[in-house]
Write a structure and sequence with these properties.
37% helix; four-stranded antiparallel beta sheet; alpha/beta; 238 residues; 9 helices
Length: 238
């Protein structure tokens, strides 16, 4: 990313210090039709995001200087709501949870097949806001107790307070609230939100639900997302 970056640029940014892998990923993504840029360290990324707001950041965990976890946290603190896919050589569940806790939407362990990476990329980009091309879109309003979810503008408010969510968190919340009072299974949630197979064993859903509960202020205002043990989750007041 360079000085030509503008606030309205959207595409895929690869952040990987391994030059050979960075070149391969950039080439493959470009060949698949994605506008792709790449950098070798977190500092270069943080200097441009925001104001440039990529649709997807593919972020290696083990970066020199600022590592991927800290970079992810800083991006979310700066207000970046685009999808973040983390790459790592660490296989432990705790490492994956750390990445999701930092604000990542998905997690891919090295070595990985390029076909799997591309499937994750397609899934992440499907979660872009409906108005990403700046056309006017109708806004459906979902309401649950004091929670208001606007699906067109992707705004969320609770008790009058604006709540900032990542794309994945918004999609998960809208799916749950839009189906209340029905219980949605873990498999259905993973298929509808993540859009790829096999990841529902990685604790990504539990971490996303935990983050949603925290942002919605469940302790102060009362919980809205409930666990149905052995089945999945349901959105309901009280």
């Amino acid at each position: 990313m360079g000085t030509e970056d503008t606030a309205d640029w959207q595409g895929v940014v690869v952040v990987e210090d391994d030059g050979s892998l960075r070149e391969v990923l950039t080439s493959v993504l470009t060949h698949e039709g994605h506008e792709t840029r790449s950098v070798g360290d977190a500092e270069s990324l943080l200097a441009h995001v925001p104001p440039a707001d990529p649709s997807l950041i593919i972020l290696d965990v083990n970066l020199p200087g600022i590592d991927g976890l800290e970079c992810c946290r800083r991006l979310r603190e700066q207000g970046h709501t685009g999808s973040i896919l983390m790459l790592t050589a660490r296989h432990e569940v705790g490492d994956r949870v750390s990445g999701l806790d930092a604000g990542a939407d998905d997690y891919l362990v090295k070595p990985f097949a390029l076909d799997e990476l591309l499937a994750r990329v397609r899934s992440a980009l499907r979660r872009r806001p409906a108005d990403a091309d700046d056309r006017p879109v109708p806004t459906d309003v979902l309401e649950l107790a004091d929670l208001v979810v606007e699906t067109g503008t992707r705004r969320v408010r609770r008790a009058g307070r604006e709540i900032e969510l990542t794309k994945l968190e918004f999609d998960l919340l809208a799916l749950l609230v839009g189906n209340t009072p029905n219980v949605l299974t873990r498999e259905v949630l993973h298929d509808r939100v993540w859009g790829h197979d096999g990841s529902y064993m990685s604790n990504s859903l539990e971490v996303a639900v935990s983050n949603l509960r925290r942002k919605l202020g469940g302790d102060d205002l009362g919980p809205l997302i409930h666990t149905v043990r052995g089945v999945g989750y349901v959105a309901r007041a009280g």
